[in-house]
Amino acid sequence: MKKNPERKHKYYVLGFYLLLLVSWQLFFSLNLIEDYLFPAPADVARRLWQLGTEGLLWPGIEATLVRMAIGFSISAAAGLVIGFLMGMSRIINGCLRSLFLGLQTLPTAAWVPISLLLFGLSDHGIYFVIIMSSVAAVAIATSDGILHISPAYLRAARTLGTPAYAMPFHIILPAALPGIITGIKLGWTLGWHGAVSAELIKSSVGLGYLLYMGRELNDASQVIAIMLLTILFGLLLDRFLFGLIEKRIRVRWGLESNSYS
Amino acid sequence: MEMAANPEPTLTKPATPQVKLRIEQVVKTFQNATQTVEALQPVSLDVYEGEYVVLFGPSGCGKSTLLNLVAGFEEPTEGKIILDGQAVKGPGNDRLMMFQEHALFPWLNVIDNVMYGLKWERAYRFRFRARRKKAVELLEMVHLTEFAKASIHELSGGMKQRVALARALAPDPQVLLIDEPFPALDALVRAKLYAELQDILVRTRKTILSVTHDPHEAACLADRVIVFTGRPGRLKAEIRIDLPRPRDINDPQVAEYARRITAELEESNEKEPGTKA
Predict the structure, then answer these.
(1) CB contact at 8 A, B223 and B12
(2) pLDDT exceeding 70 applies to what percent of chain B?
(3) Is pLDDT above 70 for A15?
(4) Can you state the percent helix, strand and coil of chain A, rounding each to 5?
(5) Looking at this predicted complex, what is its ipTM?
(6) Which of A99, A144, B55, B153 has the fewest Cβ atoms nearer than 10 Å?
(7) B60-84: per-residue pLDDT in tens?
(8) Cα(first)–Cα(last) distance of chain B, in Å?
(9) Where are the alpha helices (DSSP H) in chain A?
(10) Which of A149, A153, A160 to mutate: most B Cβ within 10 Å?
(11) From the list B91, B101, B152, which residue is nearest A158 (CB)?
């Protein structure tokens, strides 16, 4: 019952993107838009290829990914610890939740000026932006995950003789895992926004820097190419790495049925 | 209320049964912002070594509250719960509870779930091999050996309850508490589980206190059925089930007992307006 419409759905989605691409190209092929105003898909593809062969592309992607790996690892670890404390203590939760919810209303790019003031043009400032962009999301999701643990698990753990010191690692964190992974997924996306925003202004390598250079050189093809690449890498990790881990956990925890079996 | 300690030995028990669990004048009231709810009026009950006692009654009659008090999840407002001569305090695996919602840990596979409770037992604390050996034996007993490495979500409802039973038996509790053991399972699976559970009971001679609102389940499993009425909950009657084990849930004699249990409950309900039973 459920599978067929979903598969059909996928074809529509695929068709939609093809249509988008074709109509974009059509605007230029029919000369409806002058190509010095906005690049055609073919120009974008060509520029992307050039950047690749000139050896500019990979170092940029690598730099951004390495920054994310370092910055987000710190952020996820800190978010987990803070979220755990929030989940365990009503008082800490009450204090920090409002603060984090407030900070979350700030666009990630808004952390860039303060990071410039604090860290100048060093890479530390980029880590700072990544961390500030994502730590609140991880912490809030972790604490939510802990607060929503089914009481049945806690009671089972206690009746089975779990000592209090063993509760965090044996019961609470594993039971909160579905919430935690959701937070990490969201945190990654926000951190990714932060990383690219920070690189726009304060870096000499990275995807954000390539975007900035595109603008400096008045090269719209490069800007669009890098934007697409940024979307692609963000999506790849979000959907296919964290998304699949999340799905597996949710199925295993009985929160979602296994639709691929 | 006056049915407290019953010195009469059961037919199925040794001549001088030992009191394993004593519930002594236990009262429980819950307090919320606007009112005080009396969940249990003074209740006294003795459960003997190796006996299977079922608390039977409509929902909201306080039988689950009593089970929670014995498990140590809540404290009695008045009175005492005594296990092997000692008052109980807080939850512990000497009074292990099996839950309605199996409450198996999804982050552990089947055998790790069964082994889990042993980790906190002194005799097994740092002995992984011994834990595994015991878990393998228990999985054999519930006929789930080939599912040792399976994830919980891969099991059917009946299998989950069997894993929960194995997990509960692993730390060798003094008293096993069972809250509505087999809800939401189809009739065939239930009948099979009852047979299996009885087989295990005969083998382990565990003392069991369980809660149900199904009279057939009560008649099939119990040595003694305690009929509760609500609210506030109090003991109304006690029915001994003197049938040999294993019993079939569809046996006419079991059905006859089930009818008597239901009749007892209805009778007490009719008497409700007058306070004295």
Answers:
(1) yes
(2) 89
(3) yes
(4) 80, 0, 20
(5) 0.84
(6) A99
(7) 788 888 999 999 999 999 989 999 8
(8) 10
(9) 3-29, 41-53, 57-88, 90-104, 111-119, 123-147, 151-159, 167, 173-175, 177-202, 207-216, 220-235, 243-252
(10) A160
(11) B91
Put simply, the answer to whether B105 touches A153 (Cβ < 8 Å) is: yes
Distance of CA B137 to the CA centre of its chain: 22
Instruction: For an interface test with B, give the residue of A150, A158, A159 to mutate (most B CBs within 10 A).
Output: A159
Q: Cβ of A161 and B152 within 8 Å? A: no
Q: Spell out the residues 6+ positions from residue B79 whose beta carbon is closer than 8 angstroms to its own.
A: B23, B24, B25, B26, B27, B42, B43, B44
Residue type, A36: Y
Q: Say if A254 is an interface residue toward chain B (CB within 8 Å).
A: yes
Q: What is the pLDDT of residues A209-228, one digit of tens each?
A: 999 999 888 888 899 999 99
Q: Could you count the other beta carbons within 10 Å of the beta carbon of residue A20?
A: 11
Helices (H), B86-186: 110-116, 128-141, 157-169
The closest CB to that of B99, out of A156, A162, A171, belongs to: A156
Chain-chain contact of B117 with A174 (C-beta, under 8 angstroms): no
Going by C-alpha positions, the residue among B126, B141, B205 that lies closest to residue B173 is B205
A166 contacts B117? CB cut-off 8 A: no
- Hey, what are A178's tokens? 């579905």
User: Do B153 and A171 lie within an 8 Å CB cutoff?
Assistant: no
A164 lies within 8 A of chain B by CB: no
Single-letter amino acid code for the residue at B75: E
Peptide bond into B232 cis (omega under 30): yes
A218 in B contact zone (CB under 8 Å): no
Q: Which two tokens stand for residue A96?
A: 């920090």
The one-letter amino acid code at A57 reads: L
Of residues A152, A174, A252, nearest to B103 (C-beta):
A152
Q: Is A168 on the interface with B (CB under 8 A)?
A: no
Q: What are phi and psi of A122, to 5 degrees?
A: -75, 165
Q: B272 is written with which tokens?
A: 């409700």
In DSSP terms, which residues pair with B237 in a beta bridge? Answer: B227
Nearest to B120 among A163, A252, A253 (CB): A163
Q: Cβ atoms within 10 A of the Cβ of B169, count?
A: 22
3-class DSSP state of B119: helix
